[in-house]
Amino acid sequence: MASSDETPSQMPPGDGSVPPGKPMTVGQHIIDKGAQLTQSLKPIKQMSQHVCTFASYSHDMTRQIETHHYVSRRNQDFLQCAVYDSDDSDGRLIGVEYIISDRIFETLGPEEQKLWHSHGYEITSGLWVNPRVPEMIQKPELRDLARSYGKFWCTWQVDRGGFFSSDSCYIFWLSSACLEKFINCLQRKRGKCQKLI
């Protein structure tokens, strides 16, 4: 599946709250519980941070969604995130974001750099929230992340009710100009994240 920042075609109807399909059976729940007891799930256990923030589609800046990133640090310059639409137990996996340091970003070609967004304004404006983490603990991390860049692919357009993308996923980003235009809207939406702190 290729990523795209082109305007997507119309999504199939649906409320987007659940993927299509039948409810799980008792047997499927038992299999899942058994697997949970016997499997290590090591990659998932490497997720050590939760970040709540907001994102906008690169092809339609009027659409913003709340995102919850579960972060796994690969090294000082590279992080990978599983992105959900909420931090509830029924949160939906809606995408993936890679985060790189400014040092790595500078090595990318000009065309590739266009696909990445700076986290600077997002962090300095207070839109990037580490729920329930005391400020004195997160401050040094945020200082470093303010110089980082992210590339976020959305695979589930929860704001449009569509589980299946047309034929591609969509790149999200937040530019400082975009953020300034809808910061008041985001602060209202941010209420849920504020309650987590």
Automatic annotation (TrEMBL):
Chain spans, region Disordered: 1-27
Name assigned to this protein: Uncharacterized protein
Domain of life: Eukaryota
Stored InterPro entries: OBAP-like
Pfam families: DUF1264
Record organism: Olea europaea subsp. europaea
Lineage, top ranks: Eukaryota, Viridiplantae, Streptophyta, Embryophyta, Tracheophyta
Family the UniProt entry places it in: Belongs to the OBAP family.
